[in-house]
Amino acid sequence: MKQRTITAVVAALIFLPIVIFGGLLFKLFIYLIASIAFLELVRMKKISRYSVASGLGLLLVWALMFPVADLEQYFDVSELITKSEITLLAVLVLLSYTVLVKNRFTFDDAGFLLISAIYIGMGFHYLIETRVQGGLEYLFFALFIVWATDTGAYLFGRAFGKHKLWPQISPKKTIEGSIGGIVLACVVAFIFQWVAPLDHSLIIVLLVTVLISIAGQIGDLVESAFKRHYAVKDSGKILPGHGGVLDRFDSLIFILPILHLINFIA
């Protein structure tokens, strides 16, 4: 617990100032942690991180993350290749690669890399977009809801947890803990809206909080399912006591695209 606390404090002292400062430093930092998260998934699948295929997957992550607003400053975006077209090109290249290496890199491997790149690339893309478009208040709102959900689930689970939520994937999580996470998230959202009101009514904020608290828990379960399927304890070892980057960002990169898709963040 001591190591976990020290890691959390150090990580916060690095992460939060970069988030607040924003700009190029923030974008480069997010590119770095997204790259690490993608390579953690590659490691789970036991695909070489130094292979051509992994390099192509990482390039797709970077392409999907690139903020469109940055391009619009210098180019007519309508005349450029779109992210959908880039993804299709990656599909064709990776499938061609399975033939070139005579199935040492398989169709399953190609599918894994493509889904991983889209999952990581778009998730962290919306992390950048939230900071750039929504501003600090929306990004901190998302962070607080994730933290409140995790904390509430842990505390309520320990105090009242009796019914397992999904034991085949995450044996320690309980239904009571899940509900407690949603309740604490709503309390935190109420306080947040009172202290630093967002451009939405309180009822909308609370309804969205319930939605993303549930979605955040699903994002956490998705990553737990990855780890159980590939028989690994943590996604990585870069954060002592916490595991890897993906272990810390799995909920956040799941909820941020949803907040944009429902136009909560314009």
Overview features:
266 residues, mainly alpha, two-stranded antiparallel ribbon, 11 helices
List the helices and strands and how they pair.
Elements: H1 2-21, H2 23-44, H3 52-65, H4 68-72, H5 83-100, H6 107-134, H7 136-160, E1 164-166, E2 170-174, H8 175-195, H9 202-229, H10 245-249, H11 252-261
Antiparallel strand pairs: 1-2
Helix pairs in contact: 1-2, 2-3, 2-6, 3-5, 3-6, 5-6, 6-7, 6-11, 7-8, 7-9, 8-9, 9-11
Structural account:
The chain is mainly alpha-helical. It has one domain (2-261). The chain is 74% helix and 3% strand. The protein is built from eleven helices and two strands. Strands 1-2 form a two-stranded antiparallel sheet. A hairpin with a 3-residue loop joins strand 1 (164-166) and strand 2. The radius of gyration is 19 Å and the shape is globular.
Give a nutshell description of this structure.
With 266 residues, the chain is mainly α. It contains eleven helices and two strands, in the order αααααααββαααα.
